[in-house]
């Protein structure tokens, strides 16, 4: 099953709800790729021996990995952490997450500054480019197990919006304007 994505409605209701527009406006993998968002569907039940995951890690230089269980029972100050993850921000590096269990949402801004909600579930590996405005929340199941991948030592520094002068943001905007129709290298 491929990842699902859609344009979000403007709502102040619980961030863990789907927030579909009415009618629902789906977003294709090609549209996500144009924004620099990459996606692979892998086997989460055998991630330790997954040759495709090994190839992705090697080709993209992801040499650091850890696992995170995100749920009220395992995370101290859970609600506060979830609120922080949901604050719109960028990173200076790619954000790479592989869902091994549970589910959640990554929201990214499109070229017109609209929110796109990406629902990740077990088997979904997603790469958000450095400089893209995004945020994360769990869905109503309140559980996700993630593999976090990095190039080199992990850096979790979020830079909250606005960050138009941040070098990663400038490079991201440049990539959008110089490469219309980015070739699809994932999925």
TrEMBL record:
Cofactor note: Binds either 1 Fe or Ni cation per monomer. Iron-binding promotes an acireductone dioxygenase reaction producing 2-keto-4-methylthiobutyrate, while nickel-binding promotes an acireductone dioxygenase reaction producing 3-(methylsulfanyl)propanoate.
Residues reported in the UniProt entry to bind Ni(2+): 89, 91, 95, 134
Keyword vocabulary terms for this entry: Amino-acid biosynthesis, Cytoplasm, Dioxygenase, Iron, Metal-binding, Methionine biosynthesis, Nickel, Nucleus, Oxidoreductase
CDD domains membership: cupin_ARD
Annotated Gene Ontology cellular component terms: cytoplasm; nucleus; plasma membrane
Family matches, as InterPro entries: ARD, ARD_euk, RmlC-like_jellyroll, RmlC_Cupin_sf
Membrane topology (UniProt): Peripheral membrane protein
Subcellular location: Cell membrane; Cytoplasm; Nucleus
UniProt: Fe(2+) binding residues: 89, 91, 95, 134
EC numbers on record: 1.13.11.54, 1.13.11.53
Sample GO molecular function, one term: nickel cation binding
Pfam family of the protein (one): ARD
Catalytic reaction equation(s): 1,2-dihydroxy-5-(methylsulfanyl)pent-1-en-3-one + O2 = 3-(methylsulfanyl)propanoate + CO + formate + 2 H(+); 1,2-dihydroxy-5-(methylsulfanyl)pent-1-en-3-one + O2 = 4-methylsulfanyl-2-oxobutanoate + formate + 2 H(+)
GO terms, biological process: L-methionine salvage from methylthioadenosine
Similarity annotation: Belongs to the acireductone dioxygenase (ARD) family.
Function according to Swiss-Prot or TrEMBL: Catalyzes 2 different reactions between oxygen and the acireductone 1,2-dihydroxy-3-keto-5-methylthiopentene (DHK-MTPene) depending upon the metal bound in the active site. Fe-containing acireductone dioxygenase (Fe-ARD) produces formate and 2-keto-4-methylthiobutyrate (KMTB), the alpha-ketoacid precursor of methionine in the methionine recycle pathway. Ni-containing acireductone dioxygenase (Ni-ARD) produces methylthiopropionate, carbon monoxide and formate, and does not lie on the methionine recycle pathway.
Name of this protein: Acireductone dioxygenase
Lineage: Eukaryota, Viridiplantae, Streptophyta, Embryophyta, Tracheophyta
């Amino acid at each position: 099953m491929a990842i699902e994505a859609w344009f979000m409605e403007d709502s102040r209701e619980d961030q863990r709800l789907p927030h579909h527009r009415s009618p629902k406006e789906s977003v294709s993998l090609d549209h996500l790729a144009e924004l620099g968002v990459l996606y692979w569907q892998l086997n989460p039940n055998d991630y330790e021996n997954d040759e495709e995951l090994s190839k992705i890690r090697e080709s993209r230089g992801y040499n650091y990995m850890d696992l995170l269980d995100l749920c009220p029972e395992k995370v101290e100050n859970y609600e506060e952490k979830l609120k922080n993850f949901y604050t719109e921000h960028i990173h200076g590096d790619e954000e790479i997450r592989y869902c091994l269990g549970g589910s959640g949402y990554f929201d990214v801004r499109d070229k017109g500054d609209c929110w796109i909600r990406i629902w990740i579930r077990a088997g979904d590996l997603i790469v958000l480019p450095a400089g893209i405005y995004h945020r994360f929340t769990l869905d109503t199941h309140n559980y996700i197990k993630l593999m976090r991948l990095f190039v080199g030592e992990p850096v979790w520094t979020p830079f909250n919006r606005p960050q138009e002068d941040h070098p990663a943001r400038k490079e991201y905007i440049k990539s959008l304007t110089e490469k219309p129709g980015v070739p699809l290298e994932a999925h």
